[in-house]
Amino acid sequence: MCTLEKRGNIFFLTLTGAGAGDDDDDHRLGLPVISSLLSALADAKSQSSPGSVLITTARGKFFSNGFDLAWAQTAGSSSAALNRLHQMVVAFKPVLAALLSLPMPTVAALPGHAAAAGLLLAISHDYVTMRRDRGVLYMSEVDLGLPFPDYFVAAFRAKIGSVSARRDLLLRGMKVRGEEAVRMGIVDSAHDSAEAAVEAAVRVAEKLGERKWKGDVYAEIRMSLYPELCGVLGLEAKVVATPKL
User: Rounded CA gap, 167 and 156, in Å?
Assistant: First the structure.
């Protein structure tokens, strides 16, 4: 599940686990967690004002290990398991749409591993910080024999400019640590601990918040940067404000 806390102009969205309160939970994105994320993002949007910024992070050693495949596998048959996986794929799509259209800057602070849909959640933010020693970025689909949904591919094309970086992530299943992730253009900075990654995210958020941009204009500009992704997500950029002339 997740919590949303506002400190000044900064919203802290924290993945807290699947409901058991275990700090070592790998924050699988099952249907209840996805629903919790959507609710938190809606709350942040409703409370936004000029200068608002969102930081998304997690408790424990994982940011998120992707969809809840264990739940899918308990369905019994292969077809039933694939149906459950499809449910999560469909349910998660609005999370990306909510982040891309959120009227404030967004920062993901990764305390540890981010895999599959968990990595997609991270790069759907405007900025990403991570720890350099224990955090690993990993797209497991090629190793699991699973194809990518269309919005996954559109998101990686939009958010990672390097063709070779996308190839290594998606076609090699490469496990990428902090410094290498910075060099590949996947994250913005790598730090010595989970706490340092969050502190760096707060510094970024504070600088962004000082600008006190109009949130609806910020969201419009963000969406205009990623037309293919927004098209796949069903988002349309709209003229929402009169410029200062």
Answer: 10
Q: What confidence tens digit (pLDDT) does each residue in 11-28 have?
A: 999 999 764 444 447 899
Alpha-carbon separation of residue 96 from 139, 175, 184, 213 (angstroms): 17, 23, 22, 22
Q: How far is CA 14 from CA 34, 191, 217, in A?
A: 13, 19, 26
**How far is residue 96's CA from residue 124's CA, in Å, rounded to a whole number?**
6
**Cα–Cα distances in Å, from 105 out to 55, 119, 176, 192, 207?**
9, 18, 25, 24, 11
Angstrom distance (rounded) from CA 88 to CA 68 = 8
* Confidence (pTM): 0.93
Nearest C-alpha neighbor of 211 from the set 102, 40, 49: 49
- Which runs of E-coded beta strand occur in 92-183? 106-110, 113-115, 127-131, 137-138
How many beta carbons lie within 10 A of that of residue 237, not counting itself? 16
Q: What is the pLDDT of residues 62-93, one digit of tens each?
A: 999 999 999 999 988 999 999 999 999 999 99
Give the Cα separation of 167 and 173 in Å (integer): 9
- For residues 97 and 154, is the Cβ–Cβ distance under 8 A? no
d(CA 151, CA 118) in angstroms, rounded, equals 14
The Cα–Cα gap between 96 and 119 comes to: 12
| 14/7 Cα distance (integer angstroms) | 13
Cα(98)–Cα(106) distance, rounded to whole angstroms? Answer: 11
Domains of the chain: 2-233 (3.90.226.10)
CB 136 within 8 A of CB 85: no
| pLDDT for residue 101 | 97
One-letter identity of residue 124:
S
